[in-house]
Design a protein that fits this description.
190 residues; alpha/beta; Glutaredoxin; 4 helices; 7 strands; 28% helix; globular
Length: 190
């Protein structure tokens, strides 16, 4: 095998490892219903999530301003999406199901709609009967503060622990069992 082929294979292996979509932790216990390699970041390595207040968008249109600081004390499942994102449309029913399965006093859902018009965001929320509001981020300014999140990496889901720190990140589609498993694991940390 030539050096060029070996280099190409090594590069592809690194790319596959980098695109696994999982939070990185050296070792973690397997969480039921969650893909191998996806696990919460160790508590001591977590960073504070941005707490900017943004206006929400729901099926009724633009609403009140909300900040992650307002939601402290509960795990926040924060899903980044856009109406024009095909995979976002595929995963929305799973997010709705996970929302219905998790206790509202422990876990809150919050979408972040990026690079979208208000009309298209509202239409998506109505079409899928989304049971929770989303922060409206048409310029991707807020989402961009979450490392690696942007229009080319949605859907993405970030789990914020009760202390307001980023506990886990999943790039790409996420299913109901993964949302429930990760949220439960983070909520049961203490």
């Amino acid at each position: 095998m030539t050096a060029a082929r070996l280099s190409l294979l090594a590069g592809l292996a690194l790319l596959v490892a980098a695109c696994s979509g999982a939070s990185s932790a050296a070792e973690c216990d397997r969480i039921a219903g969650v893909r191998d390699g996806i696990c919460p970041t160790p508590v001591e390595q977590r960073v504070e999530a941005p707490t900017d207040a943004l206006v929400t968008v729901s099926a009724a249109g633009l609403g009140e301003s909300v900040s992650l600081a307002d939601l402290r004390g509960r795990v926040v499942v924060m899903n980044f999406w856009a109406s024009w994102c095909g995979p976002c449309r595929v995963e929305q029913p799973d997010l709705n199901d996970a929302h219905d399965l998790l206790p509202a006093d422990e876990v809150v859902f919050l979408g972040v709609n990026i690079q979208d018009s208000e009309a298209n965001a509202v239409a998506h929320l109505r079409e899928f009967d989304v049971p929770y509001a989303s922060l409206y981020d048409p310029e991707n300014a807020y989402a961009g503060r979450f490392r690696g999140i942007g229009p080319r990496t949605i859907p993405s889901t970030v789990f914020i622990d009760a202390e307001g720190r980023v506990a886990a990140r999943v790039f790409g589609l996420i299913g109901t069992s993964e949302v429930v498993g990760l949220a439960d694991a983070i909520a049961s940390e203490g």
